Amino acid sequence: MSRLLITGASGYLGQRVAYFAQQTTIWDKVYSQTWRNPPTAGEHVACDLADQAQLEALLEQIQPTAIIHTAAVTPAMGPAMTDQALWAVNVQASATLARWAAQHQVRLVHVSSDAVWGGREAAYTESDVPAPIHPYGASKAAGEAVVAALDPQAAIARTSLLYGQNPLDPNTTMALAMLRGERHGVLFTDELRCPVFVEDVAQALIELAQKPSLYGIFHLVGPQILSRFELGQALLAWNGIDSTGLPAGTTTASGLRRPSRVVVDNRTTQSQLSTILRSIDDVTRR
């Protein structure tokens, strides 16, 4: 019997992966791991990934034949993003999954982030070495390193800013809150990323989970470069909302140390996948 385990299935990406996996006939069972909130698709398995013994027991219990590891501690968690939590989930849990997957010859797809870099003028390719500038990025870079070392046959998928509808993504809800004056702050005009549609990423992860011949680093990002401010404008327009008055600013003026121009090249990855990673213009014109 084929069994897929999805970690972080109550997260924004994990929800979509679980939904699409449930629609396929690839796996006989789809297990959706969460810590607190129940998932919207798949058979719920509760587990605290920060508890290594608990995670190992779960793996032995359900014996997955494939794992898509979307769970992570992120800046969106606010004060809960402690150094201890970053290490326990983003690094140690990833190591536990990779070690178990390698020992049992199970396919592992590990989700990482463009936060592994600090920004530069040239685009980043799959062969560029991570160079993070903040704790979250450092934890994701460490997670990549342990997965690659413990399970060389794993696929490591880096993503960028995710967006989508039903439910609205965090980037849209943040822009909307700023526009309405419900949240303080600005969207940066000098912080560039390659946003990607959450459904494209979910489908690409499911495709990678089916193709064990594809291993190493993959860039699941969009082909279009946008500032956070431009992304906010585009997402509001997609939802029929006038973005006039959306607050803009620069990272320089903010005094914050953040990655600036993080442009990620996805052409090598795209040449290996049938799932198309679309531009935001293509998605919003649907």
From TrEMBL:
Pfam families reported in the protein's UniProt record:
RmlD_sub_bind
- Specify the RmlD-like substrate binding domain's residue ranges: 3-278
Gene Ontology BP annotations: dTDP-rhamnose biosynthetic process; S-adenosylmethionine biosynthetic process
- Superkingdom in the source lineage: Bacteria
Instruction: Give the matching InterPro entries.
Output: dTDP_dehydrorham_reduct, NAD(P)-bd_dom_sf, RmlD-like-bd
Indicate the enzyme's highest-level EC class: oxidoreductase
The molecular function GO annotations come to: dTDP-4-dehydrorhamnose reductase activity; methionine adenosyltransferase regulator activity
Keywords attached to this Swiss-Prot or TrEMBL record, sorted alphabetically, are:
NADP, Oxidoreductase
What SUPFAM superfamilies does UniProt report for this protein, alphabetically? NAD(P)-binding Rossmann-fold domains
Keyword Oxidoreductase recorded: yes
Q: Which residues form a coiled coil?
A: none
What does this protein do, in the record's words? Catalyzes the reduction of dTDP-6-deoxy-L-lyxo-4-hexulose to yield dTDP-L-rhamnose.
Protein family membership? Belongs to the dTDP-4-dehydrorhamnose reductase family.
Protein name (record): dTDP-4-dehydrorhamnose reductase
User: Taxonomically, what lineage is the organism?
Assistant: Bacteria, Bacillati, Chloroflexota, Chloroflexia, Herpetosiphonales
